[in-house]
Amino acid sequence: DANYFQHKPYMDDFNKQKGTKLVAMAFIHYEPFGIYGGRCKDLNKLKDGAIVSVPNDTTNEARALLLLNDRGLITLKNKSLTATRLDISSNPKNLKIEEIEAPQLVRSLPDVDISIINSNYALQAGLDPTTDALASEDTQSDAAQAYANVIAVKEGNENNEAIKALVAALQSDEIREFIETNYNGSVVPMF
After folding, report:
1. pTM to 2 decimals?
2. Which terminus of the chain, N or C, has less C-beta within 10 A?
């Protein structure tokens, strides 16, 4: 009846790719993207020709590229949710961008210089996004709004009472406190 694993840009892209009609019912939380060190543990020491792994799905690849752009490692001519490697207009360190399935990014760390990883995968691997990331998205940024995870339902189910109850439960003070207490900034409530 509902799902709770995706941000709206991912959902919109999925709808477009698959011809589905999912709608966002409510924003629940945000998981900041981080740049994690593989062979390189300091962004200031990132070498020329460094290998950078990024998610290979459309919206998360764009998000990773935007984070690299924000940190001055590349310049994008298209600074939107559709950016790809082809939109890199300046790459002063000649970074080699490798697209990898998002769940495999943590596993890629020993083989790359840096990797851009979503907090959920970092947390699952035992990384602490607030201390282990070399850089991350600002929780007050546009990315926080754009990439907040949502409760998604099939179009037409927005008024379903069970769905409304689910949203109310997930946007409760109890859940806010749970997120803040258990994730210490690695996951941020968006309600």
Report:
1. 0.84
2. N
